[in-house]
Amino acid sequence: MKDKLYRLALRLLLNGHDAEDVVQEVMIRLWSRREEWGRWQSLEAYCMTAVKNGCLDLLRKRQLRPVREEGAMDVNSHDKDPQEKMIAKETFIQIRKCMDELPQHQQLVIQLREVEGFSYNEIAEVLGISLDQVKVNLFRARSAIKKSITQTESSWKENR
Amino acid sequence: MEREQVVQLLEKYWQAETTVEEEKMLAEYFRGADVPLEWESYRDIFSFYAQEAEVKPGKELEERIMERVRPRPRLGAAWWGAAAVIVLGLGLSLYQRDKPTMKDTYSDPQQALAAVQKALLIASKNMNKGLHPLK
């Protein structure tokens, strides 16, 4: 679970150190309230919400937009040839950039759905929004990412 | 998966109509080797998400958390109570032991009275000494 919490924090804060701090705080708070666990519907949803809120508080306190830290963009080396790998890297950077620029709710919905495979119900619970809002956010985010990547692809091909 | 099915699923996917299961099928398909060139960018999107799902915090995070939640050997209230009782009891017994105890010096009342009168006489004699005016 802590990996999921970390990825969510990282999505919002774009900084590994801050993300780890928020996760640590949430886990310790969770531990101190362990007598109450039985009464909660979903421990995971509770923690995800706590991490989300912790991150938003931190961002609000700093009055800053998150800035992606250097070196956070290493690309997995799949069994592709170098040229293909480079293109993949280009598109990955493009997707990441697009995600970073999405409105917060769309970012969160994409993170929870595409990366963590949460159901609409789970996402609605974590974010405290309605099912319709989950769907609308997901639809917009997917469209934005599709648009950004198909544009890059075509411009890249034209430039060749 | 047949091409026709992929087209349908993709259509639903962009409309945010797919279920988690169907999205898993799509991801599985795009992980495969026979993805046509026209869908190359879609494959990148799915492999990007797959890569994001592999991101993990540093090893030290877990250690730091465990360090903070590990139950330290702390004495509970009951133990503190027991310790207080022991200390108190010990102190009391030491006090009792060192306290000077009264002992009778004479067994015969007459003798005792004589001794007291003698002592008082000596004391009053000495007290009267200083009463004579200085010469």
Brief summary:
By secondary structure, chain A is mostly helical. Chain A is 74% helix and 0% strand.
Q: What do these coordinates show?
A:
The complex is a heterodimer of chains A (160) and B (135). Chain A is mainly alpha-helical and 160 residues long. Chain A is 74% helix and 0% strand. Chain A contains 7 helices and no strands. Chain B has 135 residues and is mainly alpha-helical. Chain B contains 6 helices and no strands. At the A-B interface, helix 1, helix 2, helix 4, helix 5 and helix 7 of A face helix 2, helix 3 and helix 4 of B.
Task: Supply database-style keywords.
heterodimer, A: about 160 residues, mainly alpha, about 75% helix, B: about 140 residues, about 65% helix, rod-shaped
Largest sheet of chain B: none
- Helicity range of chain A: over 70%
Classification by helices and strands of chain B: mainly alpha
Task: Give helix and strand order of chain B, one letter per element, not per position.
Answer: HHHHHH
What best-fitting shape of chain A do the alpha-carbon axes yield?
globular
Major beta sheet summary of chain A: none
- What best-fitting shape of chain B do the alpha-carbon axes yield? rod-shaped
Helix content of chain B: 55-70%
DSSP, total strands of chain A: 0
The largest contact between protein chains, plus residue counts on each side, is: A-B, 40 and 28 residues
Mean pLDDT of chain A: 83
- What is the strand content of chain A? under 5%
Terminal-residue CA separation of chain A: 44 Å
Distance between the termini of chain B: 137 Å
Strand-residue fraction of chain B? under 5%
Number of strands of chain B: 0
* Helix segment tally of chain B: 6
Q: Stretches of chain B where pLDDT falls below 50 for ≥5 residues? A: none
Topology:
The complex is a heterodimer of chains A (160) and B (135).
Chain A: H1 2-13, H2 16-32, H3 43-62, H4 82-101, H5 104-115, H6 120-127, H7 131-159
Helix pairs in contact in A: 1-2, 1-3, 1-5, 2-3, 3-6, 4-7, 5-7, 6-7
Chain B: H1 3-14, H2 20-31, H3 40-52, H4 59-69, H5 77-98, H6 109-129
